[in-house]
Specification:
Oligomer: single chain
CATH class: Alpha Beta
Structural class: alpha/beta
Number of domains: 1
Strand order of the largest sheet: 1-2-3-4-5
CATH topology: Transcription Regulator spoIIAA
Order of helices and strands: EEHEHEHEH
Radius of gyration: 13 Å
Length: 122
């Protein structure tokens, strides 16, 4: 499991890779706690390279969601096939902005059009 964090202006991206489970989630939570949450900023959690995600991993994401909302910012998940199915099954896509991997611009790894993701949820 690995977490890579990058900042580009008002967008902070945490890219997760590998298995996110009971054993690795403390590292994920620690990485999430180190993220700076600024008002009107966007925090992107990129889950495209996650190969396994259990309830503890979902709990870490939900905890980050509450922290982001409390900081007056926005959380966005970028999901691959595996994580998208789980996020939809848990109905997190009804609360958190979710972008499918196919909608991500391959040149910079960021969502091609964040406004489109909002429109897709309507």
């Amino acid at each position: 499991m690995s977490v890579t964090v990058s900042v580009n202006g008002a967008v902070t991206t945490a890219r997760l890779a590998g298995e996110i489970d009971t054993y690795t989630v403390p590292d994920v939570r620690a990485a999430f706690e180190r993220l700076t949450i600024a008002p009107d900023a966007t925090v992107v959690v990129d889950l495209r390279d996650v190969t396994f995600l259990d309830s503890s991993g979902l709990g870490a994401i939900i905890g980050l969601y509450h922290r982001v909302v409390a900081g007056d910012a926005r959380l966005q998940l970028v999901c691959g096939d595996l994580t998208l199915r789980l996020v939809r099954l848990m109905h997190l896509d009804q609360v958190i902005d979710v972008v499918e991997a196919a909608d991500v611009d391959a040149t910079d790894g960021e969502p091609a059009d964040p406004a489109r993701a909002d429109a897709d949820r309507s």
